């Protein structure tokens, strides 16, 4: 059994990213980081990434190669404010999943560490 299965499989990850992008769509500064008019392709990529990361299908790598998260995010100014906005919407999305306390903690910990690792530009005060 993988975390993918333990979390609830495809439906859980589909709901997570659907709820996350619902928040992104209404967050003008964060939405501006997404170059595509339609958030659907970004939603699908994130879902595939999460599914693969947690032990599900390897569709992400089959279609896009190695995730290389830092490299893929370098073209965008990921400031502490953008990180915090991303985390706000992601944590709100996790709230909708009804995971066990252990899995909820596991997912939130991963998302927080990932968000902090992708900051690549200082905030207005010069801090990361």
TrEMBL record:
InterPro entries: GlbO/GLB3-like, Globin-like_sf, Globin/Proto, Globin_bac-like_CS, Hemoglobin_trunc
Database matches in Gene3D superfamilies: Globins
Recorded GO MF terms: heme binding; metal ion binding; oxygen binding; oxygen carrier activity
Keywords on record: Heme, Iron, Metal-binding, Transport
Membrane spanning stretches: none
Cofactor names: heme
A Pfam family recorded for this sequence: Bac_globin
Family: Belongs to the truncated hemoglobin family. Group II subfamily.
Protein name, entry field: Globin
Organism the protein comes from: Terrabacter aerolatus
The organism's taxonomic lineage, starting at the top: Bacteria, Bacillati, Actinomycetota, Actinomycetes, Micrococcales
């Amino acid at each position: 059994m993988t975390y993918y299965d333990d979390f609830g499989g495809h439906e859980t990850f589909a709901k997570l990213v659907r709820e996350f992008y619902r928040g992104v769509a209404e967050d003008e500064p964060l939405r501006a980081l997404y170059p595509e008019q339609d958030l659907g392709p970004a939603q699908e990529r994130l879902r595939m990434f999460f599914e693969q990361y947690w032990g599900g299908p390897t569709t992400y790598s089959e279609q896009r190669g190695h995730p290389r998260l830092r490299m893929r995010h370098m073209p965008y100014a990921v400031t502490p404010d953008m990180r915090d906005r991303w985390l706000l919407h992601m944590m709100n999305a996790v709230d909708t999943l009804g995971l066990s306390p252990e899995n909820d903690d596991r997912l939130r910990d991963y998302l927080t560490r990932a968000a902090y690792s992708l900051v690549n530009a200082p905030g207005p005060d010069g801090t990361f």
